[in-house]
Amino acid sequence: MSSSRNNTLRLCFLGLMTAIVFIVNYLRIPFMGTQLHMTNALCVLCGLLFGPGAGFLAAGLGSGLYDIVAGWGAECIITFVNKGAIALVAGLIAYKTCRKEESLNTSDSIRIVIGCILGALSYVALYMLKTFIFGRFVDGLAAEAVQVKLLSKLPGSLMNAAFAFICAPILFSALRPALKHAGLYDKL
C-alpha cells in the first residue's frame, strides 16, 4: 500500500475517532451522585490506538468540539489540552516513545494498564488545577471555598478516572485484534 494511501487511511481513522469522542460526550450514566461518562476512556483509547501525538489530536479535538457545540466555547482550548493530555500520557507510556514502529503486543499489558491509569489520572490533576485557578482567580473565591469546591469535585473525577482505566484496556483488547486481522492496526 502506498504511503499516500496509508496517510489517507490514518486521517480517516483519526476523523472517525474524533467524531466518536465528540458523540460519547453526550452519553452519561448517573452513578453515586455523579455522572460517569465514556469520554475519558475513549481519550485513553485514542492514545493506545494512535500513539501520543495523533491520539492527543483525536481526543482533544473531539472533546473541544463538544465544548463549542454544547455552549462552553470559552473553555474549548482548556478541554482540548486536558482531554488530549489523557491520550498523550497513555500513548507515551504504552509505546515508550513516539515511534509507531514499536507496535504493542499482548505482552505489553503492564505498560498498557499503567498508561491507562496515568493517562486518566493526568486528567484528574489537570481538572483539579483548572478548578483551582477558576475558583481562586476567575470567580474570586476565598481559599477555603476553593478547597471545598475541589473536595466536592474530586470523588466524581476519580470515579471517572477509574471508569476510564477499567474500560479503555477492555476496549483496546477487543479492537486491536480485529484491526490487526483486517490489516488496519499497523496502518493507524
State the low-pLDDT regions, or none. 97-101
Let me know the number of strands. 2
The percentage helix is over 70%
What amount of the residues lies in strands?
under 5%
Summarize the main sheet: 2 strands, antiparallel
Rg is 17 Å
Can you tell me the overall shape?
Answer: globular
**Looking across the biggest beta sheet, what order are the strands in?**
1-2
In whole angstroms, how far apart are the ends?
13 Å
The helix/strand class is mainly alpha
Order of helices and strands: HEEHHHHH
What's the average pLDDT? 91
| Number of discrete helical segments | 6
Characterization of the model:
The protein has helices at 3-24, 39-50, 52-70, 76-95, 109-138, 143-181, and strands at residues 28-31, 34-37. The chain has 188 residues and is mostly helical. A two-stranded antiparallel sheet has the order 1-2. The longest helix has 39 residues, at 143-181.
Which helices and strands, and how do they pair?
Elements: H1 3-24, E1 28-31, E2 34-37, H2 39-50, H3 52-70, H4 76-95, H5 109-138, H6 143-181
Antiparallel strand pairs: 1-2
Q: What features would you highlight for this structure?
A:
188 residues; mainly alpha; two-stranded antiparallel sheet; 6 helices; 2 strands; 76% helix
Nutshell version of this structure?
The chain is mainly α.
